Amino acid sequence: MLKNPEHLFVIGDIHGMSDELDKLLQDWNPDKEKLVFIGDYIDRGYNSLAVLKRVWQLQSQYNAICIRGNHESMLLNFLRSPHNFFNHYIMNGGISTICQLLEISEDKVVKSQARRLVRQIKNGYPMLEDWLESLPYYIEYGEFIIVHAGLDLSLEDWKDTSDHEFMWIRDRFHQTKNQTGKQIVFGHTPTMVLHQNYYDSSVWRKDMKWGIDGGCVFGGQLHALKISPTAVIQICSVPVLEGE
Q1: Contact 204, 195 (CB under 8 A)
Q2: Cβ–Cβ < 8 Å for 79, 102
Q3: Where do the Calcineurin-like phosphoesterase domain residues begin and end (predicted)?
């Protein structure tokens, strides 16, 4: 639980959409709001490296909280065991991040040995692996739980949710009644899926659950919530900017 809770500014899944992130941050008041990222900073988008550098800068300068998403977990697995996790990471959008970290083409990534790629990434970004490992799976704040994917609401105590489920759960969380007594802010599943409408990327709200992955990397929006310890105060959103 965060001590002495101030207001939060909670940003949804970014996935390398760096210009949209910079635009959304214009709505953040660093003097009054603690910055929280809900995970999935990388993969699929056009500039994951720029997003990482921005997140690291904000973490260093403002002590921003960075929650662990499934894409951070996949990158960490790849760095630790390249032979076993290379294909899984590539199939889930990781090839763009590898290209951007190493400034090489997709063709070169595909033709390279996984261990060599990992060695180059670790040489270029020696703190990356430790940073990924340091990311929490969730935080509590006032009457809120903030987590990347969701919780196992079938459990007597939601805190017994597995690390994997914190990052990967979908339908079972969305469809199970929320009896935690708290509001849950989550990302991971694009809100177009939750709304069952490809053209509706607005924030999803149901059963004291707030879905804020607006699917920006898929043409939707990048969302943030301004929240007090007891309520969502404001929704801030940025559509995909022209030229991307």
Answers
A1: yes
A2: no
A3: 9-192
pLDDT value at 4 more than 60: no
pLDDT of 136 higher than 60: yes
Fold for 7-69+135-239, please state it: Purple Acid Phosphatase; chain A, domain 2 (3.60.21)
Q: Does 112 have pLDDT greater than 60? A: yes
Helix-then-strand count for the chain, H and E: 11, 10
Q: What is the mean pLDDT of the chain?
A: 96
Q: Which residues of 180-207 are buried (b: 16+ CB within 10 A; e: fewer)?
A: bebbbbbbbbbbbbbeeeeeebbbbeee
Measure CA 43 to chain center.
Answer: 10
Beta bridge partners of 222: 238
Can you tell me the distance from the alpha carbon of 72 to that of 188, in angstroms, rounded to the nearest whole number? 12
Give the residue extent of every domain in the chain.
7-69+135-239
Of the candidates 42, 38, 37, 104, which has an alpha carbon nearest to the alpha carbon of residue 78? 42
What is the rounded CA–CA span in Å between residue 108 and residue 104?
6
